[in-house]
Amino acid sequence: MKISVVIPTYNERENLPELVERLSRALQGYEYEIVIVDDDSPDKTWGLAEELARKYPIKVIRRTKEKGLSSAVIRGFKEASGDVFVVMDADLQHPPEKVPELIEAIKRGADIAIASRYVPGGAVKNWYWYRKLISKGAIMIGRVALPRIRNVKDPVSGFFALRREVVEGVELNPVGFKILMEILVKGHYNNVREVPFTFGLRKAGESKLGSRTIVNYLRHIYRLMRWEGEIDRLVKFSLVGLSGVLVNEGFLWAFVEFFGWDKVFSNILATELAILNNFTWNDIWTFRDLKNKPLLKRLVSFHVAALSGALVQWAIYVILMAVGVHYLLANLIGIVVSFIVRFAVNRHVTWG
Ligand SMILES: Nc1nc2c(ncn2[C@@H]2O[C@H](COP(=O)(O)OP(=O)(O)O)[C@@H](O)[C@H]2O)c(=O)[nH]1
Ligand SMILES: [Mg+2]
């Protein structure tokens, strides 16, 4: 089993010798190559890599026309000749000594092995609590939005290994800069294993990605949701919700006007009929391919989602008003959040 370690570099001249040295020591006994994909670094990292290639099994790719971390990794995959690909940064934030653990996880049956900051034993060095919070929050959004990655604790790690077959024939979009997330959504695999590691400090040089915003990440998630058909589901779910409004109003009107029933009782009954209407359409349309649970469980779970949504909506309304938000805006925010909560619960639980 041959290992190809793919390393994207941009101005990493100072880190390269130690990286290559530690990596080659860690990989003693393995058949391996190091594929360095450099985007014509001004500090001539590619030149140093070529020098190191005389002593170590290194393949240097110097790109002059393209730029970007993800496209560099994808290019590395194309040039790699191994059966297992390892992806890692050049700045020693990813300890080379972890690589054998990732490879062994693959040997034991994992298709993808992730060096993970967020499984027990994993950590990040020198991050303020708010930086961790943003990182974890961003990951949570990704896991809720993309059901295929919901069990992965660190789907945005830049340090991972995979069998070549996982990405073979898969069209990866280089625009998103979280290449692992792209692979986890589009790749061919069954087993993912996460190995804890400590995300260290950059040894030398400076970060190129620090200025990348959460907006880029959210756009990446949006694109992957579209690719997975999740946006289609959201649209269908919304249309069903609108149909529920009509059902609710129609029955309420009929109960009060034609039967002369009590308005509160009529409202409860009309709401329940709307819930049943929505459940039916979602079951035979929005989530028709996801009927893994028995009908009764789906029905109960759908009611729980509806109730949770209503509670969340009400709580947000009360809390936002208490802090001085205009009541109409408070209600609107409540409605939006309630919608997200109901969609998420139904997507992950009712039709999970
Ligand atoms: N080829 C290539 N490598 C890049 C590019 N941007 C960053 N890198 C490399 O990707 C790795 C991670 O980048 P880094 O700046 O450390 O990101 P951070 O750890 O998120 O701050 C490092 O090895 C960089 O040299 C790029 O545009 N092209
Ligand atoms: Mg770094």
From TrEMBL:
Q: Which residues form the Glycosyltransferase 2-like domain?
A: 4-168
Which InterPro entries does the UniProt record give? DPM1-like, Glyco_trans_2-like, GtrA_DPMS_TM, Nucleotide-diphossugar_trans
Q: Which family does it belong to?
A: Belongs to the glycosyltransferase 2 family.
Q: What is its EC number?
A: 2.4.1.83
Q: Show where the GtrA/DPMS transmembrane domain sits.
A: 236-351
Q: Which SUPFAM superfamilies match?
A: Nucleotide-diphospho-sugar transferases
| Biological role stated in the UniProt entry | Transfers mannose from GDP-mannose to dolichol monophosphate to form dolichol phosphate mannose (Dol-P-Man) which is the mannosyl donor in pathways leading to N-glycosylation, glycosyl phosphatidylinositol membrane anchoring, and O-mannosylation of proteins.
Q: Where are the transmembrane segments?
A: 234-256, 299-320, 326-345
**UniProt KW keywords:** Glycosyltransferase, Magnesium, Manganese, Membrane, Metal-binding, Transferase, Transmembrane, Transmembrane helix
The annotated topology with respect to the bilayer is: Multi-pass membrane protein
**Organism field:** Thermococcus kodakarensis (strain ATCC BAA-918 / JCM 12380 / KOD1)
User: What EC class is this?
Assistant: transferase
> Which domain of life does the protein's organism represent?
Archaea
Q: What protein is this chain from?
A: Dolichol-phosphate mannosyltransferase
